[in-house]
Amino acid sequence: MKKILVLVFFLLMGRAEAAGWSPELRIGLLSGVEEISLQVSAPCIMIDAKSKKTLKKLPANKKITVKAKELKAASVDIRPEKIQLKDLRATIGEREYFGGVRLNVADKKFTVINLVPIEEYLRGVLPEEMSPSYPAEALKAQAVAARSFALKNRDKHKKEGFDLCDKTHCQVYVGTKIFETTDKAVKETFGEILTHKDKLIETSFHADSGGVTENASDVWGRVMPYLVAVKEVFKPVDSWTVKVSLKDFSSRFGDNFGVLKKIELSELKIGKGAKDRTSSGRVDSAQIIGSKKTVKLSGIELRRKFSLPSTLFDIKIDGDNVIFTGYGSGHGVGMSQKGARSYALDGWSYKKILEHYYQDSKLKKLY
Ligand SMILES: [Zn+2]
Q1: Which of 93, 296, 319, 360 has the smallest number of Cβ neighbours within 10 A?
Q2: Tens of pLDDT, residues 185-214
Q3: Ligand 1 mean position to 242 CA, how many Å?
């Protein structure tokens, strides 16, 4: 009897330890460095990532310096000896991260990679991607979008030896930055992803749609049935203005452009297409007529050239200036974070918010 009880106890222990497990991500942090300072929160082992042979033991809470030229393997992992990876903290330089570390060596230099379970990674990502002061349902929608994005884009940095970088190119991740609200949003959506026809989807998002989102095909030239323009019931309230002097504007088009004479672009009607606008009303193209030359630019090119918040804008020449007036911020594809906030304040659940911005999508528990 006693033996059986002990067995049951260990089985339950095993279950408890497995709880909270999530897929492990490799996040690229640094490259081309010759040495790093490292400290781990619990006893760890340094293993050869290839042969899995233990190279040495690392004590807890002791700062050490690891030099690339002294490493005995091309790739080493630093993992906890007794606890789960999710419960380990590693301080690299001045910054603390969830999980362990992989060091890849080439030409006596390191690529420093954080080995982190996705649920812990999301705790670090969420406060960077959405304000922790946003309502709970908006944060939960963002958590599902960020989780789906991370899993969908795991091969983005394959050539460099990791899954995702820690910058805006992938998702901003600064390690252990803990907020109660964002932690709760990650926890309450544990393992949940968005799918379309049972396949993980590309969950693009942006700061503010300005009243209507955009078709992925109009921005990236790729048709994605779930990333299509949807209207928001909220009227855009904050317009933006960018003022450029006529002289400055003209000079951006080169010496043989001359002086700006006229801009041909139909008037903006949010949510209404035109021959030179996409179905959401965003600028598809505009004719920029100079005294010596006419240039046709896409809305995306104009946005880039003049650092405009979005492509949902009007342009007019006003005396010695060119004035851009527009709405929204970002590419406009997928979920609008500001819209998600408004819907959450209106009582929508995160599921309803996600299904609105990602058409025909379904929430699914992956683990
Ligand atoms: Zn990246």
Answers
A1: 319
A2: 999 999 999 999 999 999 999 999 999 999
A3: 30
